[in-house]
């Protein structure tokens, strides 16, 4: 089926995979500004690395999910510029900035490696492993199989801490997610320790998509068959569920999430309505003065097929992305880059 999808895309057709069924791409779907080169196996989740010296030279890091998969790095034209070492089914990936490793601030990409039950840490932009072979997660649990991951950067009293919040294929409600504090060592490697276990789970499908809002200090996760859950990201902030929204808006699965930050406190939460090939848009700041009240603002049809993962930035990346971009995974082993202006226009039309 995947070969048929690639052929159809090359011919401009609308044949797509929807499980074992065929589903058409919507005629009103927005077109990507860029489609990346294809990976060998199965793309799943992207993350955007902003080049601190020149945002127009920023990069996308995405997973290729297979037993001999890896992380792939793309430029803003969609060209593959590097592949990581081979990984055993990397699933999701996220990026954070300024972890002290070997005495210097280091940007990192962290991915789950499902078949080894580890998370893997890579320095950026060289995409080299700095984890001494990986960090075991969910140790001692009957259910491990790590899938989703999001990184939370917290600054207190001028000290910066970076945490990995990790999800899995299945697990107990109340402690489905485990939060790890990353630590850089003098020898140039990274280790991690568990600092928190939290997160409700319906038991329906899994929790894979996780997204952190550093500025607002919260984490969202998709209970895939039920809705979107919200918690404080601070490991000392308590485990109370702050919101559970989007429960009736989706065709089936709640999948990849991206946060578009218009200001430090406003913007949008975008969630893949996977089987509908659309993104559901919610207000980042909440509604009616309540930061935990969410109402669907818009549904954006996209060219992506059964999107698993996404990321967004509002920074000016130059060229095709003056107001930033949404990058989203698509069947066919690619990622699609969208000019944010195109998405914002549709959101504005829906809100009117």
UniProtKB/TrEMBL annotation:
InterPro entries: 6-blade_b-propeller_TolB-like (IPR011042), B-propeller_Phytase (IPR003431)
Organism: Flavobacterium alkalisoli
Domain BPP: 15-347
PROSITE patterns the record matches: BP_PHYTASE, PROKAR_LIPOPROTEIN
Protein name listed in UniProt: Phytase
Domain of life: Bacteria
Listed GO MF terms: inositol hexakisphosphate 3-phosphatase activity
Gene3D superfamilies the record matches: TolB, C-terminal domain
């Amino acid at each position: 089926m995947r070969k048929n999808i690639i052929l159809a895309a090359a011919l401009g057709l609308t044949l797509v995979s929807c499980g074992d069924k065929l589903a058409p791409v919507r005629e009103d779907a927005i077109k990507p500004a860029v489609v990346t080169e294809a990976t060998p196996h199965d793309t799943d989740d992207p993350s955007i690395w902003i080049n601190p010296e020149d945002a127009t030279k920023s990069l996308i890091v995405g997973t290729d999910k297979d037993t001999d998969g890896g992380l792939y790095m793309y430029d803003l034209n969609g060209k593959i510029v590097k592949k990581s070492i081979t990984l055993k089914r990397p699933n999701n990936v996220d990026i954070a900035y300024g972890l002290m490793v070997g005495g210097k601030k280091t940007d990192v990409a962290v991915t789950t490696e499902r078949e080894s039950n580890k998370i893997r840490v890579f320095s950026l932009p060289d995409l080299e492993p700095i984890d001494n072979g990986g960090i075991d997660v969910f140790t001692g649990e009957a259910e491990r199989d790590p899938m989703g991951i999001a990184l939370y950067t917290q600054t207190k009293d001028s000290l910066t801490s970076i945490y990995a919040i990790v999800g899995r294929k299945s697990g107990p409600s109340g402690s489905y997610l485990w939060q790890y504090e990353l630590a850089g060592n003098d020898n140039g490697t990274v280790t991690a320790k568990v600092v928190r276990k939290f997160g409700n789970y319906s038991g329906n499908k899994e929790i894979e998509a996780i997204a952190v809002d550093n500025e607002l200090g919260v984490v969202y996760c998709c209970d895939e068959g039920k809705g979107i859950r919200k918690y404080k990201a601070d490991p000392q902030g308590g485990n109370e569920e702050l919101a559970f929204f989007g429960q009736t808006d989706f065709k089936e699965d709640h999948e990849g999430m991206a946060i578009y930050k218009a200001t430090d406190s406003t913007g949008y939460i975008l969630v893949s309505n996977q089987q509908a090939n659309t993104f559901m848009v919610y207000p980042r700041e909440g509604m009616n003065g309540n930061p935990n009240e969410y109402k669907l603002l818009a549904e954006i049809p996209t060219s992506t097929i059964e999107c698993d993962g996404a990321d967004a930035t509002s920074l000016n990346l130059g060229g095709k992305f003056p107001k930033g971009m949404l990058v989203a995974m698509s069947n066919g082993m690619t990622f699609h880059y969208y000019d944010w202006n195109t998405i914002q226009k549709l959101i504005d039309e829906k809100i009117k």
